[in-house]
Amino acid sequence: MIIGVPKEIKNNENRVALTPAGAKELVKRGHSVYVQHTAGEGSGFADTEYEAAGATILPTIEATYEIAEMIMKVKEPIEPEYKLIKENQLLFTYFHFASYEPLTKAMVESKSVCLAYETVEKSDRSLPLLVPMSEVAGRMAIQKGANYLEKPLGGRGILLGGVPGVLPAKVLILGGGVVGTQAAWMAAGLGADVTIMDVSLARMRYLADVMPANVKTMMSNEYNIREMIKHADLIVGAVLIPGAKAPHLITRDMLKDMKKGTVLVDVAVDQGGCIETCKPTTHENPTYVIDDVVHYCVANMPGAVPYTSTLALTNATLPYAIQLADKGWKKAAQDNQELALGLNVINGEIVYKAVADAFDMPYALVEKYLA
Ligand SMILES: NC(=O)c1ccc[n+]([C@@H]2O[C@H](COP(=O)([O-])OP(=O)(O)OC[C@H]3O[C@@H](n4cnc5c(N)ncnc54)[C@H](O)[C@@H]3O)[C@@H](O)[C@H]2O)c1
């Protein structure tokens, strides 16, 4: 198959969909890989590394879309790319269709095949192509939180791990899923006093088993949260209710009960946030202060560490990309239900119900195309 890897053009997006190592795997299997000039630069991969792996460098985004049967990307196509997409071309990338109607309509009109990273789903209902970015964001939440706890940055001026003779900081993590677990590992490793709150007893039993002694678990409810925020130095929001807006577990009135210089990192901000006063911020301007409490609410945290994020993402996407390249999308989806669930748009029809429902658009069963 002919695979094209364009350079991401969305503002501040430095990730790339394929590493030189990934290109080598595909070339080894007889596929042709075309990478747009400097596509890997933002993640630290030079054109020469792709060439050494057997890929061909193309000068423009137009040439890359023109030649490819499968386009591998990171972010959804943006407006200038719409006209480059060809009928029957397979697009394998994040789309998040339900959040943007013009994109959905443009992909329907393009008659391309859109296989969305975010809806590839395993039989246990986990989302293997979202997990890596949650892992990055969870670990980063503590790195950022520790930083903003420093006095010159508005924080309480407390060192996360303390020192001999001085107690460590208290870290409260709301939600013990992927983000919360990774945040807990990082905070615990730095020596903080960590509490994870969740509503799932099964999850907390698991966490209590695997976490070190400086991590405790506690049932998440309003009473317990009100009690815990009085003592917390760093609070991480990591709650997710699939398909719904995050619940506001920390409301505006609770800020007055917090210590001056407490830091809030609401990772769940991309789903509306679990802290009422959190509004999406950017890496250029990541924080603001309300009632002496520092809010960090960057909606695309992994974007700040493109090297790690690209490797984490491509570790997860490459096995699927290989199946798609080896078999073509139809056979690959027939053979692997995880990939079939990733199909969102085919030949001008929406085949993922939640996307069609989001915009009241017609919907076709994916089976129609996989029979
Ligand atoms: N800002 C970013 O850059 C970024 C990056 C990656 C992920 N995220 C977001 O982080 C959030 C968490 O993602 P995840 O992968 O960890 O999800 P997950 O599904 O693995 O975990 C969510 C956890 O929240 C728990 N939960 C649900 N209701 C709760 C409540 N009332 N109190 C406490 N816990 C509750 C669930 O039991 C679950 O354990 C999502 O909104 C995700 O989109 C943001």
How are the SSEs ordered, and which strands pair?
Elements: E1 2-5, H1 20-28, E2 32-36, H2 47-52, E3 56-58, H3 61-67, E4 70-72, H4 79-82, E5 90-93, H5 101-110, E6 113-116, H6 131-148, E7 170-174, H7 178-189, E8 193-198, H8 201-210, E9 215-219, H9 222-229, E10 234-237, E11 263-266, E12 287-290, E13 293-296, H10 306-335, H11 337-340, E14 343-346, E15 349-350, H12 353-358, H13 367-370
Parallel strand pairs: 1-2, 1-4, 2-3, 4-5, 5-6, 7-8, 7-10, 8-9, 10-11, 11-13
Antiparallel strand pairs: 6-14, 12-13, 14-15
Helix pairs in contact: 6-7
The structure holds nicotinamide-adenine-dinucleotide.
Account of the protein in words:
The structure is a single chain. With 371 residues, the chain is an alpha/beta fold. It is built from 13 helices and 15 strands. The protein is globular. 35% of the residues lie in helices and 16% in strands. It has helices spanning 20-28, 47-52, 61-67, 79-82, 101-110, 131-148, 178-189, 201-210, 222-229, 306-335, 337-340, 353-358, 367-370, and strands spanning 2-5, 32-36, 56-58, 70-72, 90-93, 113-116, 170-174, 193-198, 215-219, 234-237, 263-266, 287-290, 293-296, 343-346, 349-350. α6 (131-148) packs across α7. The two termini are 22 Å apart. The strands form two sheets. Strands 3-2-1-4-5-6-14-15 form an eight-stranded mixed beta sheet, with helices on both faces. The structure holds nicotinamide-adenine-dinucleotide. Nicotinamide-adenine-dinucleotide binds next to α6, α7 and β8. It catalyses: L-alanine + NAD(+) + H2O = pyruvate + NH4(+) + NADH + H(+). Residues 149-297 form the Alanine dehydrogenase/pyridine nucleotide transhydrogenase NAD(H)-binding domain. It holds the Pfam family AlaDh_PNT_N. Keywords: NAD, Oxidoreductase. Its EC number is 1.4.1.1.
